[in-house]
Write a structure and sequence with these properties.
heterodimer, A: 6-stranded mixed beta sheet, 5-stranded antiparallel beta sheet, 0% helix, globular, B: 4-stranded antiparallel beta sheet
């Protein structure tokens, strides 16, 4: 089983749609959680950290369920510019190593 | 503030050669991380350097090595290149081990290594 697993995708949605991505992690010692976005052939960029109480940044909402070892990202009112691959990332312990999911591809269509 | 910078942007090598990739961290950061992103495999942790020392290493063979210089910049060396080493190599930086770093890292734009 992969350490971090994401929805296989790809997701194709119309502009204005709401889309949700899920991610599960296997290591219960995971401490920190993030969503990154990666555009084609570019470096990944931090979208948001994920906190236990859930957190929101504009149209983006992240949730963490430690009991189920599950993370989610909700994007409301999708824009064409949201088209990218979304990567779920987990940090375990203090060894500074990030463990990455393979990503879910999102295409927002006009 | 300058971000993480990597060079070269692209590198083409033949099988068996050596490749050297460079990374300059954000000013004030002492930790540097290297990741490999091969097609279809996702990002894989390679190395973590802090204060000139290797702190952690991913599951890569010894021909992947590196070092960190006194100015905290870093080099990644890949010896005896194989076709499977073709990938995007990404570098990130953060404050050092004594600093709380529960935040995501900022990556450089990467070096795309192609082995032919």
């Amino acid at each position: 089983r992969k350490e971090v697993e994401q929805d296989p995708g790809p997701f194709n949605v119309p502009e204005g749609a709401t889309v949700a991505f899920n991610c599960t992690y296997s290591n219960s010692a995971s401490q920190s959680f993030f969503w990154y976005r990666q555009d084609c052939r570019k470096e990944p960029k931090l979208l948001m950290s994920v906190y236990s109480s859930g957190n929101e940044d504009g149209r983006f909402t992240a949730q963490l369920n430690r009991a189920s070892q599950y993370i989610s990202l909700l994007i409301r009112d999708s824009k064409l510019s949201d088209s990218a691959t979304y990567l779920c990332v987990v940090k375990v312990g203090n060894n500074r190593k990030l463990i990455w999911g393979l990503g879910t591809s999102l295409a927002v269509n006009p | 503030e300058a971000g993480v910078t990597q060079s070269p942007t692209h590198l083409i090598k033949t099988r068996g050669q050596q490749a050297t990739l460079r990374c300059s961290p954000i000013s004030g950061h002492t930790s540097v991380y290297w990741y490999q992103q091969a097609l279809g495999l996702g990002l894989q942790f390679l190395l973590w350097y802090d204060e000139g020392e290797e702190r952690n290493r991913g599951n890569f063979p010894p021909r992947f090595s590196g070092r960190q210089f006194p100015n905290y910049s870093s080099e990644l060396n890949v010896n005896a290149l194989e076709l499977e080493d073709s990938a995007l190599y990404l570098c990130a930086s953060s404050p050092g081990t004594g600093v709380f770093t529960d935040y995501g890292y900022t990556f450089g734009s990467g070096t795309r290594l192609t082995v032919v």
